[in-house]
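User: We ran a pulldown and think these components assemble together. Before we commit to crystallization trials, I'd like a predicted model of the whole complex to look at. Sequences follow.
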Amino acid sequence: MNSKPGVSPLDSPNSYIGKTVPRPNAKRLVQGRGNFVDDLELPRMVHLAFCRSPYAHAEIASIDKREAEALAGVVRVLTMDDLKDYCTPWVGTLDHLKGIKSAEQWPLANGKAFWQGEPVAAVVATSRAIAEDAVELIEVEYVELTPITDMHTALAPETPVIHPELGDNLCFERKIDEGDVDKAFADAAYVAEETFTFNRHTGVTLEPRAIVCDYNPADEALTLHMSVQCPHMSKNLYAKHLGLNEDKVRVICNDVGGSFGIKIHTYSDEMAAGAIAVMLGRPVKFTADRLESFVTDIHARDHEVKAKMAFAADGEMLALDFEDITGVGPYSVYPRTSGIELNQVMNLTAGPYKHRNYRAHGQVVFLNKNVMCQYRGVGHPIAIAIGEHLMDEGARGLGLDPVEVRRKSFITDDQYPYTAPSGAIYERQSHIQCMDKLVEMMDYDGLRKQQAELREKGIYRGIGFASLIEVTNPSPAFYGVGGARIASQDGCTIRLDPTGGITCITGVTEQGQGTEAIIAQVAATAVGVQIEDVRVITGDTDIVPYGGGTWASRGAGIGGEAALQAGKALKENILKVAGVMLQAEPSTLDIQKGNIVDAGTDNERLPLSELGRVAYFRGDTLPHDLQPELVVTRHFVSKGYPFAFTNASHACYLEVDTDTGMVKLLKYWVMEDCGTVINPQLVAEQTRGGVVQGIGPALYEECLYSPEGQLLNGSLADYLVPMAAEMPDIIVGHMETPTKTSELGAKGVGEAGTAGAPAAIMNAINDALSPQKVKVAHMPFTPDKILRALGKI
Amino acid sequence: MKKVAITLNINNRDVDMLVEPRKLLSDAIREDARLTGTHVGCEHGVCGACTVLVDGKPQRSCLTFAVQTQGKAITTIEAVKGNNDGYSALQQALHEEHGLQCGFCTPGIIVTFEAYLKENTNPTEDEIRDVLSGNLCRCTGYQNIIRAIQKAAAVMRGETPGAAK
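Assistant: Here's a predicted model for the assembly, 958 residues in total across the polymer chains.
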């Protein structure tokens, strides 16, 4: 599957592509020298705390802020009426999601509160502690309204409508009906069916959301220090809604303490901080605490799916038919909307397979719970779990091996490029090859033997598979065509410094996944310098080329290609200067390890530092007609395909204790194909971290709500996340099917782990439970659910 | 609330500060001593990001009042150093093994294991997983952190650890 372009800097002997290079920026992080938003202190800075609605749905009858205002150290107590001149409302819809609707959302509740945790009033004080004290002194009189918290009855005629101006509680709906689904089911040798529950959960970034807004009235300029994935998108939105000149809004994003899609949305408390900074003309800081994170960071999933899959007698999958309903919050989140997750489920379910009969119906309904939006994997974990569970069920029903059923059903190599019945287009994938490697890597036959032996002794182990596709490297088809000013292109500027080193300034951002290392590796390779001599700058909209940032697994594929092209162009410019200095044809020269060399022989001719010295300080010694251009910018937008789909095959081996219902994870394997692997260590670690964020919701994580819309477990003591003792070793293997949409050939890898793990875990548990003839399909698979399935409680 | 004058010994230096009795040690370290390497992740003692050493023992600084630590020796990530280019063996190993992503949890993990590896110079993987379960890392999946701790332990014992995987 290796088909890299013939003559490319990627193939040069000193290429860093495909090498494990420790991240340059990790050094300061292990020394506690990171630069996170909450670390920042500015002169005259004040702190924000929010009075939040304790009710899921309530009218705000009155707000008495006198006592709070009287507290020493309080600067202002503000309600929405105070902010109306400083901020306009927003509506989370996109043109290409036909029919999606939402209500106007304001930075603070505007007369009504729609979820528990919605900010109602803001306190500005000289310290966070004083601001929190003052919040306790605000007297809000609420009139409780009926909370709408059940997705199944949200559309019933007798259910009150959350936003009467919208007419009903339906946010978005989509239907697909391709091929002849009814005939396929009628003709099927076997039909597998299941009803799934995908639990509501959230990202739990260890660094909570944080923002420092610094408005300078003299310049009418707003600087936002944010922990965010998309600096330019934020710049646009804050300018738009705070009524500022966009060119005078600057977003600075330094270290980000975990993001996973959480820090990419418009949050009302953060927008309020911006409006208050403009109002007061002084820096304002807001850092969410953990409870605020749980009730306001976007939640994800919360889908119920009824699905059936048709099979031929030989195990080939023929058709899929499913109904999906998801309850989001009271608003569609701005600007990416709360319709995308469902849309992804519609687009991607059973994506690895060549069936032509596909019926899907999905509904997104509003609820009085915290808002929902794109979190790592976006729809994939649901789509993959539906398809992969039914594949296993089909195998069980037909008495076939689950691997064989998949092999029979995969899109074959000669069918690419392939358009799925949902309309998704795949350039080329390696499902068959990944599955072959996976079963070898895990010693599948050996495990099956061991499983059978242990069953005799009353030990129940299970093997679960998941083959998946993942949307990466999005083109404007994702958001741009829908009218959102979210860039899908990205740029990279590379400068040869007088020292002979290079500085790369990139529009993609770093949140720990290693973007800076990737950009450095690509740029060092393209220019021909040592990686120690590369510096990477990210995250500052006043400095970096306009770009989308890092989301939807686009950093390496899009940002990396821009760096490759910028590096190649810079090299050409450098060789032009070198040719003059060395009286040689530029085409006979090359750059290796920071030196101009004779191409082919690598005979050293001139260090780049000498070329830099002459070009920057002794231009007088160069010919009149030579103006060295040692700074180059290149951009890249993915064309030809809307997305570069990656693929992977996962397998999980676990043990279920049928007396306690506990699941013990024994081992986990992933064969992933993200195209060109730039840094195997980083790819493996993105995969592992992703898998663990899929294990979490499969086994532990759930945002539990009462029927009144109260979050019942808003602390890390109550909301369980994966810890070291429970996690298995995760073995990662690589397959490379580069995308031809770029020279680099890299696709994304950030989300595939999260996409596949819930399916693999579910399948392994059900495989373990198969001797008992029971199944579970309601995540998370906590001991009580397993014991209930076994009839023990 | 009336403030009290206290002196904390942080990283072998006395720091005078005027704090409310309710002020958490984590906030005093970050806001008054201006040492921002100690991170606050949950403020209720679960995530372990704010871990510092108090008289050599790991302690959640978010569950400790600053006034309680007068007269004690507080050590934060900023004082963790070593002979490897200024790194300790553990810091070096975490970097090499990619035992961190965003780095927000990392100071708490380093401080915890700088103390633990003095107590147990040759821990098993299970022992490491047990101790590490006091620190939430949301990015990595822990595997590389464990490899890094094993590697650091080997280096500290004077052995040459196996090559990185």
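DSSP finds five helices and five strands in chain B. That may be worth checking against your pulldown data before setting up trials.

User: Thanks, that helps.
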